[in-house]
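Quick entry, no commentary yet.
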Amino acid sequence: MDTNTHHHPSKKEPSTVSELSHNQFHLSKRKVKLKIILNRLKPQAETVIDAEQVVFRPGRSTTEHIFNLKLLSERYLQHQQDLYHILIDFKKRLGRSQMWP
């Protein structure tokens, strides 16, 4: 079930566009437009987003970043320097429905 929609078991799902309410129809149109825009922007985002941001991109492994973080930590310890890490799990902190309307 989509987290952005409300499910009412007593109401049947519309099977045709004509059965959609005015608001449902416009919401569906907006979702389609947003999906088209997103699909156009995704390839361009690949050229703009830094490699360091790979952790937050689908289809990319976090293993290399964890290893690099370990190496960086060891070097800072070796040189007796302070190093601060901030790791935020946005899904746990905000919940998917609050992050992505």
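second:
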Amino acid sequence: GLSLAVVGLGERGRRWARLASMSRGVEILALVDPRVEVAKAARNALALDVPVFPSLQEAIRDGLPLEGAVVALPLGSREAALREALALRLHVLVEPPAAGSLPEVCSFLFRAEAKGLLLKQALWLRHSPPIRAMRRRLWERRLGAPIGGLMLCLHEPGREWEAVQPLSALLSLLGRAPQECMKERYALRLDFGEGLQFGLALGPSGDAMQGILVVCEGGALLWDGRGAFVREGRRGLRWRLEDPLGFKWPGSGEAPGGFLPLPPDPGPSGEEALLARFRTEAERGREQKEAVEEELLPLALLEACRLAQRTGKPHRPAELIEGPTEGGGHVEASKRIEEGAKGDRG
């Protein structure tokens, strides 16, 4: 299998370590964190029988045959860990952003490419069990193409909620995760029409997913963050954040809220057109099988990098960045990276 070290054993690092330990063809050989006691605590919590080191250099010096590293350190320490990993000729999976600015990210990407290494940015959220379960549920319910949604995110400093996420972010990276240090409790109230409402409690939790709502052409799904879809709606949804502790919201003082309408009933002809958009059962079954096999995509890409090195096929910049970006996704991301690289080289 592919031998990895997980660098940074905070909450995200632990999640990546758990994900890697469950991935076929991947073997964790070491846990690395400048805070050795933190790494030891993570090793005990994850029940991993691997050594702990303060740096990747120490792990290599100890004779470990590392091939890659998952870097999940805070941004202030992330760049130094990336430099160390690339200097040691290790493939790298890193929590985005890889650096504090686009030119610096480009510099890392092309530095890795010049060495024949893979540097991959990826959010743990995209490959977490709740997100994979949500995608399966959307397929099972056949509600049509998603058209919008909510993910609840608490930003620091202060208590400012950003609830509406772009569709591409919701279905791909699912936006920013709620902060781990939430101390207050809130409630999300959804109105499904005809007097039917549902309250969703939000509060301190070790789970990154606090609540996801996906609105599709034929209905809506609500994920409660605890592993089950709790309600489906066939009409527009009215949502509102309520604070049982009496917090006064900035501005008007009213809690954030909004309405997510569903398109009008398409009627028989529209429904037929909607159903025609679905692929055959055989194609769906194959797609689902592939989704299961590729659910740990970034880690699988580290393995695939071996083949690229053997064949000599270079990685294009667009293949080294994951997820939607402002201005048009992968194509625009590739252009921005190339432009940044020109500036970096010049």
